[in-house]
Amino acid sequence: MSRRARIALKAMIWGGCLVPLATLVYWFVRDDLTANPISFVTTTLGDWTLRILLASLAMTPLRLVLGVAWPITLRRLLGLFAFFYVCVHFSVWIVLDFFFDWPRMWADILKRPYITMGMLGLLSLVPLAATSTAGMIKRLGARRWRRLHRLAYVAGVAGCVHFLWLAKVGRTDQYWYVATLVLLLGIRLGDAALRAVRRRRARRAAAVATAGIRVP
Amino acid sequence: MLIRRAPRFTSNEITDRKVYLSRREWMIGAAALTLLPGECGAATPQGEPLGATRNDGLSLKEPPTKFEAATTYNNFYEFGVNKDDPARLAHTLKPRPWTVQVDGLVHKPKTFDVDELSRLFPLEERVYALRCVEGWSMVIPWIGFPLASLLKRVEPTGQAKYVEFTTLLDPKQFPGQRASLFGFALDWPYTEGLRLDEALHPLTLLTVGMYGQVLSNQNGAPIRVVVPWKYGFKSAKSIVRIRLTSNEPPTAWNKAAPREYGFYSNVNPAVDHPRWSQATERRIGEFRRRSTLPFNGYGDQVRHLYAGMDLKKYY
After folding, report:
1. B9 is a domain residue
2. Is the pLDDT of residue A124 over 50?
3. Which of A107, A165, A170 is nearest residue B184 as measured by Cβ atoms?
4. What is the CATH number of the domain that holds B263?
5. Which residue has the higher pLDDT, B183 or B271?
6. Does some domain include residue B17?
7. What is the DSSP letter of A123?
8. Tell me, what's the pLDDT at B183?
């Protein structure tokens, strides 16, 4: 993919990721945020956090399935946007929903499993956002950085469980998110298994080659 | 004792003949519109003005929630699970002609036409607080008559201990009742229930209108019950049958999630929903949360119904 195409793609992702926020602002201006604006804004921001987070988690599987490298270049951008949306989601909860009622919020974080899970997801994204720069990759070393960034899957799982646990009986949209996450995790696990098998074969082949022994 | 009665109305309040005749023309036009091809159901009177006497003694002093909010932000799973589904799909329901079968453990079972009911019993307007189990609330001027009036007319037998309400089952009129890919959690038709003494309580209102109008489809047309001291889902909508029973009737949400929605479901800030707190609520139209009141503020009127009961156990 050419440099120009990559820049265009990134610009599109930037624009696309800002659309949900811009839409909320537009609806706010037009006083069109439903009869329960705070709840509507909170859930909309939550939905988009999860969508963008799953999109960022889809980049590696996409590379594996399509056999092209370009999805990887979008991973960080999507991940940071997911972090941005979860921060706005959380701020709305603190400021608009509970209006800084710390004791009550703290009690809810401890007592309500879906809120605990949401907090876990948010917290697991913090180190990822903090180490998202090229400089941090260098400082940590690629290997350690990669290992740390597997936390993205923890965030994905926490986000989906957060939604599963808060959804009222009868809703079905949460299952789509869970199904997507399972598919993405499945592709990665499948790939890891495949690579392990290949590595073992390669080791055996190497052993055979060096020792010249027939393996039954 | 001197009883002073104001005249019911003065002559200048009587609608001018020309005006009401023009209104008739308009009605005929509206009726003709509904007879256009593809729309062959009976005229639906929802939104028509509906006269009623305000019952100030049983009315909240707070200003009602905006009509627009009360008719666009609804939980009515027969239309769909989203808050805007009921308003969006309300036109699929045909609230006339409509009958309500009242039977079970009664001496005089009868099937009533819904319009007959509003003629039989004088309509009252009552401004009630409505608290949804999800943590939001509204203030709504309902129009209806006490359920007790109807129940007394059919004469419950000595065995009658509970009242069961059944909502219309018709996937053609209620898109939410159609089978979906994942199946659905609620066991249609929607049924709800009250203990007989709760049903006979003067606050329990059979409702045919709100905001001075005939009840809109998304709010449970043509007839619903309103039980203001319980979470909103206890107030069954679009009722086709009221049955008196000796055993506690199974109820839709209780069957779907027994730990979350009990048979009683009295508004209670001290008993949390297993997943969220019920201590506070957001009154639609307000910014800050407010504290939820026991029995939704109707404690003085209804507390005695639950004397000696552990409300944590009977949630």
Report:
1. no
2. yes
3. A170
4. 3.90.420.10
5. B271
6. no
7. H
8. 58
What is the pLDDT averaged over residues A86-96?
95
Write the ipTM. Answer: 0.79
Structure tokens of B203? 């606050």
From chain B, the residues in CB contact with A37 under 8 A are none
Instruction: Confirm whether B198 is domain-assigned.
Output: yes
- Closest alpha carbon to A126 in A163, A106, A146, A154: A154
Number of domains in chain B: 1
Any chain B CB within 8 A of the CB of A165? yes
Q: Would you tell me which residues 55-84 of chain A have a C-beta closer than 8 angstroms to some C-beta of chain B? A: none
A109 token code pair: 């974080």
Residues of B in contact with A168 (CB under 8 A): 81, 134
DSSP structure class, residue B53: E
A90 backbone dihedrals φ, ψ, rounded to 5°: -70, -40
Residues spanned by the domain of B276 = 28-306
Give Cα A190 to chain centroid, integer Å: 19
Task: Name the pTM for this structure.
Answer: 0.82
Please answer yes or no on whether A169 and B182 come within 8 Å at the CB atom: no
| Chain B residues closer than 8 Å to A162 by CB | none
pLDDT at A130 exceeding the cut of 50: yes
pLDDT of B26 strictly over 80: no
**Domain assignment of residue B7, yes or no:** no
- Please tell me the distance from the alpha carbon of residue B292 to that of residue B282, in angstroms, as a whole number: 9
DSSP A133-152: SHHHHHHH-HHHHHHHTTHH
